[in-house]
Amino acid sequence: MRIPANSWTTETTKSSRPQLSLDTERFGAHAVTPLGRLRTTRPAFTLVELLVVIAIIGILVGLLLPAVQAARESARMAHCKNNVKQIAFACLLHESTHRHFPAAGWNYRFAGDPDKGFGKDQPGGWHFNILPFIEQAALRELGSGGTDAQRRETGKQICGTVVKTFICPSRGKGTPIPYTVASTYAFSNINRPEAFARSDYAANGGNKITGWCNYNTTDHTGIVYSRTGIRREEILDGQSNTYLIGERYINPDFYENGGSSGNDQGWVVGHDFDAFRCTDYRATDLVTSSNYAPRRDRAGINVREMFGSAHQIFHMARCDGSVQAVSYNIAPQTHYYLGHRQDGQAISGDGN
User: Fold this and answer.
1) How many other β-carbons are positioned within 10 Å of the β-carbon of residue 232?
2) Is the pLDDT of residue 9 over 80?
3) Among 97-106, 124-133, 291-300, the least confident range
4) What residue ranges in the chain does DSSP mark as E strands?
5) What is the distance of C-alpha 282 from the center of its chain?
């Protein structure tokens, strides 16, 4: 007799199987799921825990923010130092090409003229004269060969053109500044600009303030001054012992406006405090009673004659092209000597 195949199957009655309700059964902090697993329920954060987490995050941000800011400023300082290096190298290339360092132009009433060469006939300042050596030849030649009316208009355009190599990133982007100079002191060889572009760097005008605007006087002890470019052989103290260019002091109140007579004409100007500074620490400003020793930018102090910067130090290039980070605590006499190309005074070490 054959046994049916389905006779081998053991039937289990519904009553013998464990029954699980679709609803979970609660046992304190646990629940039984439809598959028979225990699920642990997690209570939400309490207000106290949330406040503790927020406080910890705030402390971490407070600790990290100064470090981030310091890293950013360090990067800006490195960028600024590179600008000084490029400008110094451009001055050396100018000297190799024209046999003299760039001349400072005429005075505060004159901007650069592309048709007036690189010597004493060029009314524009040293910034204008080094443009071909920082890959800005096209800017310097703007308006060349045109009529006087055309050059006056292109000169206005050049005046408002920002050259990134001339801008220290610690002072912002260097956007054009409204031109507010009274007509008595305004440019005479270009149309009046609506705005001018500044430079954060100045040439070494020597260690004497007096006679700065006069042509070819004994007060011109530096490297760049009115109508004249110094030759290498005239630097009797040695190129490594004489300043060439460096960062200049600017009152932060006037970073973006032309309210200071030391920051109101821009880089295109001839021999003026927008483009050169001195090392005469002995002189004193008659208005602010501040001396001319280098200093860090400070709101409310509006002095136009000194070197300085927005950093904890200021960068100076010497006539051999080397660039040093100089402390504001540099010996005043040392700073004074470095501004003179032929005083015969010895400078020890890096001058700091």
Assistant:
1) 14
2) no
3) 291-300
4) 25-27, 30-32, 38-40, 177-178, 195-196, 201-204, 224-225, 228-229, 243-247, 276-277, 295-296, 308-309, 314-318, 323-326
5) 28
